[in-house]
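Budget justification, computational time. The allocation requested in the original proposal was used primarily to generate structure tokens for proteins on the priority list. As evidence of use, we reproduce two of the resulting records. The first is shown immediately below.
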Amino acid sequence: MNHRPATPLPPIVLSFAASDPSSGAGMQADLMTLSALGCHPLSVITALTVQDTVGVGSLLAVAADCVEAQARTLLEDMPVAAFKVGLAGSVENIAVIAGIVADYPALPLIVDPVLASGRGDKLADDEMIAGLCELLLPVTTILTPNSLEAHRLVSATGGYDAGGDGSELPLGDCAQKLLDLGCRHVLLTGTHVNTERVINALYRQGVGLVRSDAWDRLPGSYHGSGCTLASAIAANLASGRAVDDAVAAAQDYTWRALASGFRPGMGQFIPDRFFATRQRPRLLDD
């Protein structure tokens, strides 16, 4: 009998996320990003959404026992190199995910704290935010909030002295309070901060600020930029890159995907995660 020669496995990343039928954000964004960066993605659906490039109309959380069954079945079958968590859908799902990743403490966990849509549609209530802070953040390798998400997370813990909602707290202090909750790293993204260039800052537990990267601010707004960045970090860590290198490379990939983005509907632009495959080949007589 002829046997096929063994083929090296690509890095395998398991994503917990909601389904986005527009394929701009959520699980579909994760699958495309991880695939574009050479990984084999596994998908655990946490919620079903009705949404387009304009906003989210409704959300239906998947039952926690179904979320657990999806993940456990995959983990018993294939070797996973990293976890990525996006929108969990419910506090029960957060608890289940926390229990699952706790069984694999050696694997990196990247958490994108999706709390609202780009339009501002609320996607997480106070109970879910509390569950995120108490159960997932203590086991998180890299948390990737934007400034609005960082302030809301810190506010939920009572970790602010001014501003009512925590909005007066400097972002560096926000990052430190999130590190105090147990995150090993916090990558604070600056798309919502009024600066000429977008400044993303990486903080490390016990160290503080370790790198700051500035990117040209692109016109328009993008559906799924945070999902793309977090998934790109997960892909790079699963491929064996060190944290600083993984974060730097993920930012570069994400900026290029955004710069190549397209506007298929009436709302936000969608990043082109496969921009490299769509670049026009250079002809010999060019």
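The second record produced under the same allocation is shown here.
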Amino acid sequence: MRSLTASELLGAWEAGYPHTSAGRALALLGAAFPERSLGELARLPVGARDSLLLSLREGTFGGAIGGLVACPRCGEQVELAFEVGDIRVPTGAAAPEVLEVERAGHAVRFRLPDSRDLAALASGREPTGPGQMLARCVVEARREGAHVEARELPEDVVGAISSAMEAADPQARVELATTCPGCGHGWAAGFDIAEFLWREVEAWAQRLLRDVHTLASVYGWSEEHILAMSPWKRQRYLELVGR
């Protein structure tokens, strides 16, 4: 993928700011992949979306990722450091649009969760609960030929569907084996590239706006003129004005 200019990335941050995480991820991807419509990007399974976000992150801020996570036992902040390649799942054949599971006399057809589902559940306009995502993704469920509501499926059938979803879209769930140096507790820390990248973009945008404000105040240049500069040149001017 091509690298975004400062103006494009700032525009994506502005476009995504009013939205929840799913909408913000789509705003970033829309800027990075203008040849693909937002509707097409929204229909991507979550793991396929996250694979693109990893590419965007690598091309924008580099492949090294670092952060802090609280130990669930003692609360100590534990440092995480890894490369994008460490969590990237090799790309295989695209999953079928509709998958099927047969278990305990039930035949269920379903699709993988996508950004539309994440946005709907985050909006608060729909009922929430552990079974709501499944209800959105089940296309058809039958038991001995009779229709069954998704919320009526037994636990073993729900478990089989969840396992099939993870197998078909493994990038959607990233967990990092983590050990607390303070108490020795080990656990699997979840990593959400959509949330992580947005926080990075927001921090970058806030710094850039301060830089634009400083240079515009001193030199009278427009935002467009300042953003067109290379980061190296912009920093040299900031040093000249004491920033």
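A brief technical remark on that second record: The CA atoms of residues 93 and 168 lie 10 Å apart.
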